[in-house]
Design a protein that fits this description.
Helix content is 34%, strand content 17%. The protein has 143 residues and is of the alpha/beta class.
Length: 143
């Protein structure tokens, strides 16, 4: 079984799009800051939020089921108690990886994801991990 660090590095180096469940239109929230940062670092962002139309300059889908393209990585900004349902929706949508942001932990979500063969990370921040690994998104411009 791969270590969490190995899974993190695989996800950051393999996925070009991050579907963000619970993305926020409020720039003061991590659920806005993290997608904005990852977008600036070269990843494409697909925000999911039932209460917004545009987040970080991208059109918002109301749910994972409404995302109009194949989903790979699902990044979650929802309370731990919501994580199992998000995991079920990610599996149903055909996602291949599930990432629960810093402070979000769920044994049930982990089990759902692992049973479906999804790569799984919990309680880690995409910004911290991107900075730690130095991996840039595929859309980044070399400087």
């Amino acid at each position: 079984m791969a270590s969490t660090d190995d899974v993190v590095e695989h996800i950051l180096s393999s996925y070009d799009t991050i579907t963000v469940v619970g993305a926020s239109a409020n720039p003061a929230k991590a659920a806005n800051e993290v997608p904005a940062y990852m977008k600036a670092a070269g990843w494409r962002i697909v925000p999911v939020n039932p209460h917004a139309d545009e987040i970080v300059g991208e059109t918002v889908s109301r749910s994972l089921a409404e995302v109009p393209e194949q989903i790979g990585l699902v990044d979650v900004f929802r309370p731990s108690a919501d994580a199992p349902e998000v995991a079920r929706q990610a599996v149903a949508a055909g996602a291949t990886a599930l990432w629960l942001q810093l402070g979000i932990v769920s044994a049930e979500a982990r089990q759902i994801a692992e049973d479906a063969g999804l790569r799984y990370v919990e309680d880690r921040c995409l910004i911290i991990e991107q900075r730690r690994t130095g991996i840039r998104g595929p859309g980044s411009v070399a400087t």
